[in-house]
Design brief:
By secondary structure, the protein is of the alpha/beta class. α5 (about 90-100) crosses α6 (about 120-130) and α7 (about 150-160) packs antiparallel against α8. The chain has a six-stranded antiparallel sheet. Strands 3-2-1-4-5 form a five-stranded parallel sheet, with helices on both faces. A hairpin with a 2-residue loop joins β10 (about 210-215) and β11. The protein contains ten helices and 13 strands.
């Protein structure tokens, strides 16, 4: 039986930012030529191996897939980096691009590397394309003002609490995506119930602080205020998490998958002398959120 050919976008796609979307657009445009838009990437945990990103990866696998699907990608292959790291460039082309994907078109950014010890780049990819019968398109960097759109620059901005700057490069709000976890219910005792979302091991955690946010519940959009950090006012040690108070919503969301979009930075996280002082500050944070 004849296999459908694909147009394969190559890259880590950590964040699926505007630069990545330029590459993805080239793959999706090949629908006109009868090719299925596809992506080869590595799992998020591989980011530290491939890019040396000490801060961690931007988005987990599930949300990354969601974004790629929204961009029009319909076929995915995302093996662990360890599985392929010793392959030569030609082995990668033969076993992945031809045997796995039946590629008729391949696109990537200018700095894409592949093969053992990143020995091959776009020139070698073009040569393999000629040998194995697929077209290669290399997409130039996307710039916004003086900045090249890159995952490393987005990580830097998130780490600095520059959520507006990170969102500009992402092309949409930075999103905390995951299951709502049961917490210690401190928020309910001070009249500000929250939903709690954990960051995965190895994932970048934005600057600790309070952010304006938005979320969608059952098709309705709500404004919210999100605290990222370790809750220093509450005794004990804990891993960083995101706590979100949703304005105008009352209900049980435990166990549900939700996306919380950060839209602005309000203030750094800090320790308060009492829960009453914390309650008063949260009220001011909510006022600041509605003013943004």
């Amino acid at each position: 039986m004849e296999r459908y050919g694909t147009a394969v976008a190559l890259g880590l796609f950590d964040g699926v930012h505007l630069g990545h979307r330029a590459v993805l657009t080239e793959a999706c445009a090949q629908r006109e030529n009868g090719l299925i838009p596809a992506v080869f990437t590595f799992d998020p945990g591989s980011v530290s191996y491939k890019s040396g990103a000490a801060q961690g990866y931007i988005y987990g696998q599930k949300y990354k897939w969601q974004l790629l699907f929204e961009c029009g990608i319909r076929s995915f292959f995302s093996p662990p980096f360890e599985k392929l790291k010793s392959w030569s460039g030609e082995s990668f082309v033969k076993r992945v691009l031809k045997q796995q994907f039946n590629a008729g078109f391949v696109c990537c950014g200018m700095d894409f590397r592949f093969g053992n010890s990143a020995s091959c780049g776009v020139d070698e990819l073009r040569a393999f394309g000629n040998a194995y019968g697929f077209e290669v398109k290399v997409v130039e960097d996307v710039r916004l003002g003086d900045s090249v759109v890159s995952s490393s620059e987005i990580r830097r901005r998130l780490g600095d609490g520059d959520i507006a700057g990170a969102n500009e490069l992402l092309g949409k709000p930075y999103t905390i995506s995951g299951t709502i976890m049961d917490g210690n219910h401190i928020g309910r005792t001070i009249d500000f119930p929250t939903i709690n979302q954990n960051f995965s091991e190895g994932q970048l955690v934005p600057a600790y602080g309070v952010y304006s946010a938005e979320t969608v519940i059952d098709g309705k959009r709500f404004r919210a205020v999100t605290n990222i950090g370790v809750k220093p006012t509450i005794e004990g040690k804990r891993s960083p998490l995101a706590e979100t108070h949703i304005l105008g919503f009352s209900g049980d969301l435990y166990g549900r998958e939700m996306n919380v979009e950060l839209t602005g930075f309000i203030r750094p996280e800090r320790k308060f002398a009492s829960l009453d002082e914390l309650r008063a500050q949260i009220g001011r944070d909510i006022s600041a959120t509605t003013d943004i």
